[in-house]
Amino acid sequence: MIKIRSHDLTLALQKLVKTGFLESSGHGRGTVYYIPGVELPTPDEVFAGEATLEKLKPLDLSSDGLTESSEGLEYDGLDFPIIHTLDGLKTKLRERLENIAEPAKASRKINKQEMADLICSLCNGRFLGLKVLAVLLDRSESYLRQGHLNPLVEQGRLRRAFPTTPNDPRQAYTS
Predict the structure, then answer these.
(1) Are residues 124 and 81 in the same domain?
(2) Which residue from 93, 59, 86 is spatially nearest to 73, judged by alpha carbons?
(3) How far apart are CA 57 and CA 55, in angstroms?
(4) How many structural domains is the chain composed of?
């Protein structure tokens, strides 16, 4: 986004942390910087179960998990619902997602730009987990993560639900 060496940027960010303008978590390449007072949710908080169940506000959540009328789990720290499984989604939403992903399922040979556009369309207005994307697009998780999701995050076209833990298997993405 800006033309500055990564080393110089790291030094500038560290200086902002020392002066109190930013806070950081993580180490090395996994360091995430954020504004003080803004708490970033972690996967453990979102998916912890009973310990944080009162923070979860799923749409039509029953004691068995997501119901058929659900559109994902809502969490106070995230701006969109998280869909980490296709089971229990509203039929219309699932069909809409499957229709968006149809070109990838229909052809194993789809160019990189088309795949990127499909992923961004699928993730628009919701956080989709890697497993969900893999099922919808009929591609392996490692292929999607390495070949598409990580580059799209770097380009700023996608955003992670849990930026402090980018490699968590429960990671989800939105456009």
Answers:
(1) yes
(2) 59
(3) 6
(4) 2
